[in-house]
Amino acid sequence: MENYKQIDLNDYVQTGEGGASLTYSHKTRATLAKLFHPGREAELAEREFQTARIVFDMGIRITCITTWNQLY
Q1: How many CB atoms are closer than 10 A to CB 15?
Q2: Which helix (H) or strand (E) holds 17?
Q3: How far apart are CA 22 and CA 15, in angstroms?
């Protein structure tokens, strides 16, 4: 992950929040963006991405575009 693409967050909707990052889903495409909180190393983002890729490649599909506030 040496090259990073610039995006416009106006094209995304925040769909998640956790201790390490905020998650945004694109309004019209199946694309996610994660913004890690200050102080979190870039390696954490790369490890999380690689784990998600391995799970996806195993055939496990998880579809959830819901915020915590929508659940409760």
Answers
A1: 18
A2: strand 12-17
A3: 8
User: From its phi and psi, is residue 39 left (phi > 0), alpha (psi between -120 and 50) or beta?
Assistant: left
| Sign for the pseudo-dihedral over CA of 29, 6, 21, 1 | positive
What's phi and psi for 16, nearest 5 deg? -165, 160
Radius of gyration of the chain (CA): 13
- 6-30 pLDDT, tens digit per residue, is 889 999 999 988 777 888 999 998 8
- What residue type is 17 in one-letter code? E
- Percent of the chain residues topping a pLDDT of 90: 14
DSSP code of residue 22 = E
Does the pTM surpass 0.85? The reply is no
Query: Which two three-digit tokens encode residue 67?
Result: 């915020």
